[in-house]
Write a structure and sequence with these properties.
The chain is an all-alpha fold. Helices cover 22% and strands 0% of the residues. It is elongated, with a radius of gyration of 33 Å.
Length: 79
Amino acid sequence: MGKQKGVIHLALPLLLLLVIAGSLLIYFGFINNPFKNLPGLSKKQSPKVTLKTGYRNPFNKDTQYLNPFQAYKNPFLNK
């Protein structure tokens, strides 16, 4: 086979050079990081959850939930 002409063999080294140059420009701060503000890539903040410390007795009639639409009778309700 003879010598073939073409430029496709230069595509991979040129692509690697562009990726390395772009990452260096982002690293040294010449270009702002475009991926910094994406919600999936940033650190996820955990939600703030407030815990209730009070204890309510479930057998006390004053603290029980009363469902006016219930079809069955609760055995703990003595009416």
